[in-house]
Each structure stands twice: as structure tokens, then as C-alpha cells.
Design brief:
By secondary structure, the protein is mostly helical. The protein has a domain of 178 residues. The chain is built from ten helices and eight strands. A hairpin with a 3-residue loop joins strand 5 and strand 6. The longest helix is centred in the middle third of the chain and has 38 residues. The radius of gyration is 23 Å and the shape is globular. One of its GO terms (biological process) is response to toxic substance.
Length: 371
């Protein structure tokens, strides 16, 4: 891949990440401020607004540094493959650390104001609602998508088994990176472990997306305490949108996985049309998921109280750990979508799998540094 093409592929990703983190508080629920539960009436206090400005300034500074570092890696050191992923990993890691720092400062400021200002009341409403009708209808939606999500995973599993039987046909160098036009430009040595790792990782990604999609539908919905009937209909429509959008995302990743595996076992370049189609589907479905999450019924200031609203079960406002809550996924306190409940068995498994995938991604990234 040429230096300019690499930069053109990298920049949109960095810009999207920058804009997401810059506007993350805007996308968060009305009862949360950088992972801390605060009534929306108090978020406009000067001290809190200053912390918001500080986070955005640090985010912008990090973005500029990462862009400059990427230019140096690509044009001075000619580490094109390394620069295609390392800056993204570094920028996400950097943003996580400045978020944790901001979260701690917000939490400290909240407790300080509570102890010094007698008229300040940050605590959110603890009114809860259990809608049995909604739960029954949600179960019907769950059964439908559970079956639908199994279909592409079953097909991919069969194809992965077929791919392993073709091990002897695979060339001695396995492609792990392709150019914009589907031409392999980065390789690792052929071995049973490397082939199994690549194919297994692709299958695992599909499983993870399916689990996320299913549990996104299954996750707790907070009914509006002021309009239960309308909120129920809105929430059911919301769950169906999530289910179908995750299906499109799953299909796009399924198509991409088959394309990659086929290119490995048949020693071919990636099919350009298939690659563009799957990438486009993935991008559109991901953007639409973000839009759906932003409009989540759970983000209303009048949504009912649930166990995940209690701050004592949160680490840095981003990791949920409540052994008394059976929910696998809960609404994030900062950001878009859901996070896992680390206290559940499935949560622990998911945490380990995610960690393993991240380690693998970092390992592959640093391998490209020496090419």
C-alpha cells in the first residue's frame, strides 16, 4: 500500500474517533456526567462545564499529536503497515486515560459540593417500574433474533472447518493485511497455530457480535415513569431496530470473514467488490446503531431507576461489577451503547475473550513494525 493511500485510510478512522470522544458526553444519558450520576439541572454548574472543556481540550491535543506521529511513521520511517493500526490503538488508549482522570475529578467535585453546599441535591430519582406486558413481548423478539443470528454463524462454522481441511493448499506466507484494492501487502509464516488463530479469531468475532446483538435486546430497558404505555411501544420498536441493525452488522462481518478465509485457502487476493460491499454495510450499520443508541428510551431523565444506576457498583464509571444483578449487559454511564456486568459468568468470559482479542491485535500490530 502506498504512503498516501495508507494515510487516507487512517485519517477518517482517527477523525471519527476524535468526534465520538469529543461529543461523548452529549451522547450520554441525561442523568450522567462523565460516568457520575448527577441530576441534569446541575450539569451546567461552572465547575462541571470547566471539566468538560478540559476533557475536550486534552482530546484535541492528543488528536493533533497522533496525527503528527502518524505522518512521521509513514513518511519518515516508512512504517506504512504499522501506522495503519498503531495510532488508532494509542489514541483510544489515551482517550480512556483522560476520561478516567476526568471521571475522578467529577466524582471528587460532586462530593465536595455535597459536603459544602446545603442546597445542592445531585441524587437522581429512585422510582422503578416493572412492566410485565413489555417483558413478555420482549421475549418474543429475543426468540426471533436468537434463531436468525444462528444462521450465519452455523454457515461460517462449516466454512471454517472446510478451510482447515485445505491447510496443505495454503501458501507458506499467510496474508494478514490487504491494500485498498484487496492485494495482500503484509504476511506471516504459515503454521497450524497461525492459520488456526486467524480463522478462529474471525469466527470468534462473529460470535461476539451475535452475543452483543442478542444481549443488547435482552438488556434492561428503563420504562418512562411518566408515560408507561407510550414508553412500552417506543421501547419495543427500539429493540426491533437494534436487532435488525445488528443483523446487518453481523452479515457484513460474515461476508468479510468468508472473503478473508477464501483468499487464504485459495491463495487469492480479496474480492474488491465483496470487500467494499461488506465494509460499506459495516459502516452504515455501525453509524445507524450509534443513532439508535443516542435515541435510547433509557437516556431520558424520567426513565425508571434500576440497580445499574447505583454508583457503588461502577469502576471508573465504565466497568459494571454487581454480583446481585443477573444482567449481562447494562446501559453505559459514559458513551454510546452498553457495557458488560463483570460479576456475571458470561461477563467474565466476554472480558477474557475481549482481552485476548486486544492482545492479539497489539501483537499483530507490533509484528508489522519489523517488516
Amino acid at each position: 500500500m502506498s504512503k498516501t493511500a495508507s494515510l487516507l485510510l487512517l485519517l477518517p478512522n482517527l477523525i471519527i474517533i476524535y468526534l465520538l470522544f469529543y461529543n461523548m458526553q452529549f451522547f450520554t444519558g441525561k442523568k450522567q456526567f462523565y460516568g457520575v450520576s448527577i441530576k441534569k439541572d446541575y450539569i451546567d454548574i461552572k465547575e462541571f462545564k470547566n471539566l468538560d472543556k478540559r476533557f475536550k481540550s486534552l482530546n484535541t491535543l492528543g488528536f493533533i499529536i497522533i496525527i503528527l506521529s502518524s505522518l512521521i511513521l509513514i513518511y519518515k520511517f516508512e512504517k506504512v503497515a504499522f501506522a495503519s493500526s498503531f495510532p488508532i490503538l494509542m489514541y483510544i488508549t489515551y482517550n480512556f486515560f483522560i476520561y478516567v482522570n476526568t471521571h475522578n475529578k467529577v466524582k471528587l467535585l460532586k462530593h465536595k459540593l455535597l459536603s459544602t453546599e446545603t442546597k445542592v441535591d445531585f441524587e437522581i430519582s429512585t422510582k422503578s417500574v416493572v412492566d410485565v406486558t413489555f417483558l413478555n413481548e420482549r421475549n418474543t423478539i429475543l426468540k426471533k433474533f436468537k434463531f436468525i443470528y444462528l444462521i450465519p454463524n452455523f454457515i461460517l462454522f462449516i466454512f471454517c472447518l472446510f478451510a482447515m481441511t485445505k491447510y496443505n493448499n495454503i501458501s507458506n506466507s499467510i496474508p494478514i493485511h490487504w491494500s485498498l484494492f484487496g492485494i495482500a501487502d503484509n504476511f506471516i509464516e504459515k503454521s497450524i497455530s497461525n492459520v488456526s488463530l486467524i480463522i478462529g479469531s474471525l469466527f470468534l468475532i462473529n460470535i461476539v457480535i451475535s452475543v452483543l446483538g442478542f444481549n443488547s435486546i435482552k438488556s434492561r430497558i428503563k420504562i418512562d415513569t411518566e408515560n408507561i404505555t407510550e414508553s412500552r411501544l417506543e421501547s419495543l420498536k427500539y429493540l426491533n431496530k437494534i436487532g435488525f441493525t445488528f443483523l446487518v452488522l453481523l452479515i457484513s462481518i460474515f461476508i468479510m470473514s468468508v472473503n478473508i478465509i477464501a483468499s487464504i485457502i485459495f491463495n487469492l487476493n480479496l474480492n474488491t467488490i465483496v470487500s467494499i460491499l461488506s465494509t460499506l454495510l459495516m459502516f452504515i450499520s455501525s453509524i445507524y446503531l450509534i443513532i439508535i443508541f443516542i435515541k435510547s428510551p433509557n437516556l431520558k431523565s424520567t426513565s425508571s431507576f434500576s440497580p445499574d444506576d447505583d454508583e457503588k457498583y461502577w469502576i471508573w464509571g465504565s466497568i459494571y461489577n454487581n454480583p446481585n444483578d443477573p444482567s449481562f449487559m447494562v446501559q453505559k454511564k459514559f458513551g454510546i451503547g452498553w457495557t458488560i456486568n463483570l460479576a456475571t459468568s458470561l461477563g467474565k468470559v466476554f472480558f477474557i475473550i475481549t482481552g485476548a482479542l486486544l492482545i492479539w491485535a497489539v501483537f499483530i500490530t507490533f509484528q508489522t513494525l519489523f517488516i
